[in-house]
């Protein structure tokens, strides 16, 4: 990957900084209260680095049409509470109200703008080039009042929009502390992993997980891929162990149009890497709300598969404990149900006990790790579900491409102009 400039490369003191963050958070549908503030906590290091700047925050909450699509006024209050400093808020994004509030900012003050996804162009212009996005109203209005753009929104680094990539050619763009941490941690796991390196892939984002497996095996990053959850069910069906109609109908529904391409990639993987893709030897079916463990040789079953079987869990836990690097994404089963949480809990316990460098993808798995108090025992807990998967799968990440292009465009001039004064 080409160089991405960070806050270490620029001088931000006394300057107006546009800061894009992702603090999209789960909210209580009845009260609007925050159910989890992890993403807000994770951007605090960047906020501390910008304590002597005028900070203008761009962020979002959900998207139009969803129940939790709302203003960011509550996010400003919550960030202020966690930061221990007031965070101003304006019910505007780039209109006269926002521009006036920015103009009135003093050094050390923070202003959060309203939900950027309330701007029509933020939603509609996701296929535009960086050059075209520079003409968006948001970029045109805000680039004129700022000195530097800092992107700390790793969780939507796989998105292309005015607020994420539109400032590429309008302002010097650098990575915030969280963005840099995420990139460094994932590159460490992918470029020079301590061996053996194993990928443990589960959950119901089967197409993403198959893409991750394909990238890691073909590039020689992973020594083994262990399949759990929906990924295991699909690979079992292609290996002569048809799980049963309930499980397969669910997978086809979840994958939709991606079904055909995903199956083709999975077939090629099983053909090219038969010895390093490790499938379960037993599974647990949900039979009338009861856990029934069975060997894969006894499949199919007219009940959905909700977890790994005990023998498979023991094998996976042993592999995790002896690994050098572990990249884990997705639960091993339907962990929300007590009868079927065993596989996921044991898998995460093994990661916590392992001396390996453990990278946990975002989403439900990361939330569960936090709830079980295991966060400090993992090497890296990603804040981005889809973004983390796209990075590991080797897909293009628009926000990171934007940072590399900005670094190439402004290059050494940014660094020399912005070095801290001796």
Task: Give keywords.
Rossmann fold, 422 residues, single chain, alpha/beta
Tally the structural domains: 2
Number of strands: 15
Strand order of the largest sheet: 3-4-2-1-5-6
**Helix-strand makeup class:** alpha/beta
Q: What fraction strand?
A: 5-15%
Shape: elongated
Poorly predicted parts: none
Question: Radius of gyration, rounded?
Answer: 23 Å
Cα(first) to Cα(last) distance is 31 Å
**Mean of all residue-level pLDDT scores:** 94
Largest sheet: 6 strands, parallel
Fill in the CATH topology of the largest domain: Rossmann fold
Please estimate the helix content.
40-55%
Instruction: Look at the structure and name the CATH superfamily of the largest domain.
Output: Phosphoglycerate kinase, N-terminal domain
CATH architecture of the largest domain: 3-Layer(aba) Sandwich
The CATH class designation of the largest domain is Alpha Beta
Helix segment tally: 18
Description:
The structure is a single chain. By secondary structure, the chain is an alpha/beta fold. The chain has helices at 38-42, 44-49, 73-83, 96-103, 120-124, 130-133, 137-143, 162-165, 177-191, 206-218, 229-238, 245-255, 259-272, 310-321, 342-353, 364-371, 385-392, 398-418, and strands at 16-20, 54-58, 88-89, 110-112, 148-151, 173-175, 197-201, 224-227, 277-278, 282-287, 290-295, 305-308, 325-329, 357-360, 380-381. It starts with 15 loop residues before the first strand and ends with a helix. Helix 10 packs parallel to helix 17 and helix 14 (310-321) runs parallel beside helix 15 (342-353). Strands 3-4-2-1-5-6 form a six-stranded parallel β-sheet. A six-stranded parallel β-sheet has the order 9-8-7-13-14-15, with helices on both faces. The chain has two domains: 7-178 and 396-418, Rossmann fold, CATH 3.40.50.1260; 195-355, Phosphoglycerate kinase, N-terminal domain (Rossmann fold), CATH 3.40.50. The protein contains 18 helices and 15 strands.
């Amino acid at each position: 990957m080409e160089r991405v400039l960070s806050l270490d490369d620029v001088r931000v003191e006394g300057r107006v900084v546009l800061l894009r963050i992702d603090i999209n958070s789960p909210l209580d549908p009845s009260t609007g209260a925050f159910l989890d503030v992890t993403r807000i906590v994770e951007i605090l290091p960047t906020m501390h680095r910008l304590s002597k700047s005028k900070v203008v925050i761009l962020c979002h909450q959900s998207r139009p049409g969803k129940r939790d699509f709302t203003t960011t006024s509550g996010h400003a209050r919550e960030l202020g509470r966690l930061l221990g400093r007031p965070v101003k808020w304006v019910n505007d994004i780039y209109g006269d109200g926002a521009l006036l509030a920015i103009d009135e900012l003093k050094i050390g003050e923070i202003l959060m703008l309203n939900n950027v996804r309330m701007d029509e162009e933020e939603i509609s212009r996701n296929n535009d080039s960086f050059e075209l996005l520079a003409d968006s109203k948001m970029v045109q209005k805000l680039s004129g009042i700022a000195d530097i753009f800092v992107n700390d929104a790793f969780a939507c680094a796989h998105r292309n929009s005015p607020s994420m990539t539109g400032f590429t050619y309008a302002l010097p763009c650098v990575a915030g502390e969280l963005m840099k941490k995420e990139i460094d941690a994932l590159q460490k796991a992918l470029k020079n992993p301590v061996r053996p390196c194993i990928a443990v892939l589960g959950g119901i984002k089967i197409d993403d997980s198959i893409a991750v497996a394909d990238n890691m095996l073909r590039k020689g990053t992973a020594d083994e891929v262990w399949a759990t959850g929906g990924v295991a069910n699909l690979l079992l069906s292609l290996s002569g162990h048809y799980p049963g109609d309930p499980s397969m109908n669910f997978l086809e529904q979840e994958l939709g149009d991606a079904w055909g391409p995903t199956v083709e990639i999975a077939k090629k993987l099983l053909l090219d890497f038969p010895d390093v893709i490790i499938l379960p030897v037993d599974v647990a079916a949900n039979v009338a709300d009861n856990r029934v463990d069975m060997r894969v040789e006894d499949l199919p079953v007219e009940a959905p598969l909700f977890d790994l079987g005990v023998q498979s869990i023991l094998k996976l836990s042993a592999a995790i404990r002896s690994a050098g690097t572990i990249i884990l994404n997705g639960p091993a089963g339907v962990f929300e149900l007590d009868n079927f949480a065993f596989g996921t809990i044991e898998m995460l316990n093994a990661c916590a006990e392992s001396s390996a460098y453990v990278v946990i993808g975002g989403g439900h798995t990361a939330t569960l790790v936090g709830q079980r108090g295991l966060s400090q025992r993992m090497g890296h807990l990603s804040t981005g579900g889809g973004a983390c998967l796209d990075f590991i799968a080797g897909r293009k990440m628009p926000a990171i491409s934007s940072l590399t292009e900005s670094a190439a465009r402004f290059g050494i001039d940014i660094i020399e102009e912005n070095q801290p004064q001796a």
